[in-house]
Design goal:
Helices cover 29% and strands 16% of the residues. The two termini are 19 Å apart. Helix 9 links the parallel strand 10 and strand 11 (278-279). It contains 17 helices and 21 strands. The strands form six sheets. It has a seven-stranded parallel β-sheet. A five-stranded antiparallel β-sheet has the order 15-16-17-21-19. Helix 5 (174-189) packs parallel to helix 8 (236-248), helix 12 runs parallel beside helix 16 (461-473) and helix 13 (388-399) runs antiparallel to helix 14. With 555 residues, the chain is an alpha/beta fold. Bound molecules: alpha-D-glucopyranose (GLC) and calcium ion.
Length: 555
């Protein structure tokens, strides 16, 4: 297995808007990140991924870019970014940016020009169809609306996979592709070490998606879901290879793509000469949702299923390339609320959940606040929603006379705002995030759940994460935990999840009791073999409720 700098990286994901405000506008900023670099270093992470910081009207909090070459004034300036990269480098921390190129903002100069002048070269930077007045077809975007939006009062329509404020870019156009490559090089020159690549599986559309004729519908509203037509379409790899050859490979970048790759394509996406360093796998983070009538809803799942999904994903990834284990991000709710029932949430369950994913094979990602066990926000009403997709879905339901409370219930468990509330630094006003009312409410539990108190206390989720990182980085076991083979362990009890990481030197077992009853272990653990334990006691061949233990054997 080829060694690469990003294979033993520990990535800390920052949602800049909610991380740290320094100028009293209630919005996090780059200066705030600079001020908190020591916190990240102390935790042990050595790579940060910044969610989008480019100029944006912030309809989708930066996933709608209006100027690819400048930092949004809410966050600071390009000089601040350069300073951040420099300050991070001094601490041995690399910086990844979010590359959002499936679409841009409807405020981008390209789009404005395309709208103003149908003959401008920028019109072909987008997907625009002229019709006799009706939408070109019945494609539904990811939100519950049409994928086509009329331009002014013309008969021209543009295509958008996400919100109407996020027009899709036309990747068929080589000139557009060239622009994107130039832009990536611009940031690379500023010291950016790689990219998290947003919604990249969407860049190629099927022929039917763009034709002016009805697409067979798959739901009661007469529309057609877009997944089949815009995800991983034939031909996409050609475009991605260009990015790889022109940029990623030239500068030894780390790339992690937000795209669901079926096993038969893994070799080409993350294999030896793969398009990306790694891709995000949704199979077990989305275990609790399903799509019904074009909308996502909660579904029941079991620990057994969770275990199977994790093992399946690890086995496939290991066969071809490299993984990117994660539990949370800015699109997911807080993981503890997803995987553990309310009455069982606590130090043990949070650390057990941490260990469950952290030693899987791949580069682990931690989302801001996860390391202190932050929890979902107790949403009451729709006016507390900030996520534009949620607001739109709620309003649509109200408009259509549907049960909007059901949507609200879904957002309480699953809404993206859950993880976007401000980072809880201390028990002071606004959790130390800002000295003024933040753009999104602080979770009221900040008085007892915050980074400062956890750093002071030894028995805390924070310290457990720190220990997990130390182990992955340790001169003794780091190599096995990074490059060692993964093997899932068959167990009788569903709640007992175990896996091994092994190389020629060591075999390390990760045991997690993911339930509230004591379980028997199939093997006896020698006291002096224990590398990590989230409880003080270590019964010889049992695990207490939500206990997790790492044990090593020399080969
Ligand atoms: C990705 C981002 C998400 C964003 C969407 C559209 O899924 O993670 O936050 O809303 O793309 O850019
Ligand atoms: Ca600010």
């Amino acid at each position: 297995m080829k060694e690469k700098w990003w294979k033993n990286a520990i990535v800390y994901q920052i949602y800049p808007k909610s991380f740290q405000d320094t100028n009293g506008d209630g919005i996090g900023d780059l200066r705030g990140i600079i001020n908190r670099l020591d916190y990240i270093k102390n935790l042990g992470a050595d790579t940060i991924w910044l969610c989008p910081i480019n100029v944006s009207p912030m309809m989708d909090n930066g996933y709608d870019i209006a100027d690819y070459y400048n930092v949004d004034p809410d966050f600071g300036t390009n000089e601040d970014l350069e300073e951040l990269v420099e300050a991070a480098k001094k601490r041995g921390i690399k910086v990844l940016m979010d590359l959002v190129v499936n679409h841009c903002s409807s405020e981008h100069a390209w789009f404005k020009e395309a709208v103003r002048d149908p003959k401008s070269k920028y019109a072909s930077y987008f997907i625009i169809e002229e019709t006799d007045g009706k939408e070109p077809n019945n494609m539904r975007c990811y939100a519950a609306a049409s994928a086509w939006e009329r331009i002014g009062d013309s008969n021209r329509f543009y295509f958008h996979s996400f919100s109407r404020e996020q027009p899709d870019l036309n990747w068929e156009n080589p000139e557009l592709r060239k622009e994107i490559i130039e832009m990536m090089k611009f940031w690379q020159k500023k010291g950016i070490a790689g990219f998290r690549i947003d919604a990249i599986g969407n860049i190629k559309k099927s022929k039917e998606a763009l034709e002016q004729k009805p697409i067979p519908t798959d739901s009661s509203d007469g529309m057609a879901s877009m997944e089949k037509h815009v995800l991983m379409q034939n031909g996409i790899e050609e475009y991605l290879r260009e990015l790889k050859e022109e940029v990623f490979d030239k500068y030894d970048m780390m790339t992690v793509a937000e795209v669901d790759v079926p096993e038969e394509k893994m070799e080409r996406f993350i294999g030896k000469d793969g398009l990306f360093s790694m891709v995000f796998d949704f199979s077990y983070t989305d275990i609790d949702i399903e799509k019904r009538n074009g909308k996502e809803w909660k579904r029941d799942w079991s620990i057994k299923e969770l275990k199977e999904k994790i093992f399946k994903s690890q086995n496939a990834i290991q066969k071809y390339g490299w993984g990117s284990p994660y539990l949370e991000n800015h699109d997911q709710p807080r993981s503890i609320d997803k995987y553990v029932s309310k009455e069982e949430i606590g130090y043990e369950s949070k650390t057990a959940l941490g260990a469950l994913y952290f030693f899987l094979r791949g580069t682990p990602f931690i989302y801001q606040g996860q390391e202190i066990g932050m929890e979902n926000y107790p949403f009451k009403d729709a006016d507390e929603l900030r996520d534009p997709f949620a607001v739109e879905r709620y309003e649509q339901s109200v408009k259509n006379g549907e049960n909007a409370e059901a949507d609200m219930e879904y957002f309480r468990a699953r809404g993206r705002d859950n993880s976007r509330t401000p980072m809880q630094w201390d028990d002071g006003a606004y959790a130390g995030f800002s000295d003024t009312e933040p753009w999104i409410p602080v979770n009221p539990n900040y008085k007892t759940m915050n980074a400062k108190s956890q750093m002071e206390e030894t028995h805390s989720v924070y310290h457990f994460y720190q220990k997990m990182i130390c182990l992955r980085k340790s001169p003794e076991y780091g190599k096995t935990l990074t490059y060692g083979d993964f093997e899932g362990i068959e167990t009788e009890k569903d709640a007992l999840i175990g896996y091994k990481r092994a190389d020629e030197k060591y075999e390390i077992s990760v045991w997690v009791n993911f339930g509230n009853e004591t379980v028997d272990l199939p093997e006896k653990l020698e006291q002096n073999s224990i590398l990590l334990n989230n409880r003080t006691e270590a019964p010889e061949s049992k695990l207490l409720p939500y206990q997790t233990i790492l044990a090593v054997k020399e080969k």
